[in-house]
Amino acid sequence: MKRCAWAWAALWLSALSYGGVDIQGFAPPDIDKWVLQREYRRIWRAIDDDSVPPDTDAIVVRYYFKRMGSAETSWLPEWGGGGAVGKNLVIVPLDADPFLHQSFLQITTHELAHIVLARAAGDVALPRWFHEGLAMTLSGEIGFDEQVVLSRALLTGSLMPLASIDSVNGFRQYRAMLAYCESHQAVTLLINRYGLEIIPQIIAAARSRGNFWGGMDSVLVMMPIEFESAVRQAIRSRYQFIGFIADTYMAWIGAAILFLVGYFMTRMRNRRRLREMAAAEQAAALRAAEAASDRDAAAQGSSGTTDTDIWRKNETHTQ
Q: Comparing C-alpha atoms, which of 98, 95, 97, 96 is closest to residue 132?
């Protein structure tokens, strides 16, 4: 009993040090303020560089239904499953159809990650790809769709510049999905190469330099063009086999179409030849019949006796 009391006390003190999370609206049954407080602390620890204390301002997480005409509905794009507004508000519609198809806890955690990043960065604007890629990583929003979307983008040459992802809220659903997938790959590249600890280092350096790419240059000696090239190379190396399969699949489809076209053209050509052969045989038979008739006529003419001569001869005998 004492141990349980100490645990609750520790949790309460931790909540005070990190700020509280207040829930408004119709919270899903598997979500309460303590669950969200735990996720908020976990995210802070993931990006904490000990130079910025956690913001103690309370965060409001508001769950609502779009069909009830809530004002928050106009704040999200049509494909959005949630949003972080400023540094203190998270909104999550319960009747949305987000393209990532994640749980409400994942959606809320994703938006809490945006809040934490905004608070940790201070006055420095972090690029949208960094926000979305890290929020996806920390909330576990990874699916097979990412492989399909990126493979298709490689085949069609439609990968977008990372800087353009800043305008993702104005994208249509498929382009937005591609933007999120590229963002996740960019952050995955950073973590795979340098470890998760590189994230707080970049944020701290960005605060020190006053802009994100200044922080990237300080920590990684890497500018936007170099990083963009590295991300694209990582996507190609990771998904080129899937792209090859898809490309081979399309090649087989093309071969099948060519085979069918060739087959039907051959059939049409053979039918035309059969008709020509039948016509030629009919013409040859007609010519043979005419030739035989001519031969019969010639044979009768060469005998020197006509039907008139035979009649006269018979008449003479009768007389």
A: 98
Q: What is the pLDDT of residues 90-140, one digit of tens each?
A: 999 998 877 666 789 999 999 999 999 999 999 999 999 999 999 999 998
Residue partners of 29: CB distance under 8 A and separation at least 6:
none
With contact defined as beta carbons under 8 Å apart, do 93 and 82 qualify? yes
pLDDT of residue 5: 45
Distance CA 199, CA 229 (A): 20
Q: Which helix (H) or strand (E) holds 62?
A: strand 59-64
The residue whose two tokens read 């004002």 is: 71
Both tokens assigned to 218: 């300080």
Matching residue, tokens 């393209």: 99
Residue 98: enclosing H or E segment and its boundaries? none
Both structure tokens of 224: 């936007």
pLDDT tens by residue, 160-184? 999 999 999 999 999 999 999 999 9
Distance CA 168, CA 121 (A): 21
Distance of CA 203 to the CA centre of its chain: 30
Query: Could you tell me if 16 and 8 are in contact, meaning their C-beta atoms sit under 8 angstroms apart?
Result: no
Q: What are the contacts of 271-275 at 24+ separation with CB within 8 A?
A: none
Residue with tokens 């049954």: 29
Per-residue pLDDT of 122-135, as tens digits, reads: 999 999 999 999 99
Pairing of strands 89-93, 83-85: antiparallel
